[in-house]
UniProtKB/TrEMBL annotation:
Protein name as annotated: DUF269 domain-containing protein
Pfam families associated with the record: DUF269
Stored InterPro entries: NifX-assoc_nitrogen_fix
Domain of life: Bacteria
Organism: Paenibacillus monticola
Stretches the record annotates as Disordered: 1-28
Amino acid sequence: MESMANEGGMMNTRSLQEGVTVKRRSRPAEKELDQDMVEIFVRRLCNLLDITDHFGRYATLSTQEKIERLFLASKEDKDQSDFNCAVPPKIRLQVPVLFQAIAGVMEEKSGALIQSTAEINGEGFGRALVYSGRIILVLKSLRAGFPFPFTSEDKVIRYGLACVEEGLEFLEKYKEMTAVYGSFSIEG
């Protein structure tokens, strides 16, 4: 056993002497966002939030303030859901609204009819689907509410646009298969 440990130590000193660099995991650099997609996503999200504002209390707010007040969870909400494993109602409302906004952006960009369905239970488990006909474009499993609750607008936008790009790539991949008969006729 001791000889194996010494060999490992010898390998490390040898690699340092030879100038071999050790690869370390680091955070990937954040990708530059397409501002046109960001604008569409924020507009769609705000339109959905306006629909839930029945009395127009937040109609005079800017888009950033609207998203912050009506959509994002506060630090207290996040701490509460982390502490007792129960998902507050505000967070349970985030899930379907976010995926409806994602579906709306994909629909606007592709011209195809895109729909979404999302559910999350009180413990934070659930799933979200974004689909067109019989083709599932985005499928996300929610385990203990992850990645929800969102506490910053940047994280919401990055997550939403990542889902949009994933779905549009998948839609483009299967465009040839659905061109002749449409997406409703694929046998599955």
